[in-house]
Predict the structure.
Amino acid sequence: MKNILLFTFVVISNVVFAGTITTKIDLGRKSKDCKGLGVCNTESTNDLLTAKLVYSPEAQKLKFIFDNDFIANISDVIASNCLIEIFIQEEDYMFSKAQSDKLGSSQLLVFPKGSYAIVFQNNSWVLTVDKVKFME
């Protein structure tokens, strides 16, 4: 009688799904009373600008997805070169603890200052932050 040795491997995958929230946004610099360029407030009470935020914890990417009339609503605060729209974030913006949690981050998410391309995809304008920052 032959002895057979059987190995069983169990692979458990930790799949982390991106968090998503829809929120109202004010534009400007937080330090300048929402004047200037960038995202000033992501918990606004005005109805001028709404975005869906999608965060991927594994890639540390954050996407702002705006409806297709977004560019018309903010044409005075973006630069355009006919090929691509550029959104300028003049200073870091820190999301609230509640929003960071809903997006799936255990740390406070920060939208870093810089210039970001805004591209039109699937009937929406998308701004992608390739690498978010974190605050403890």
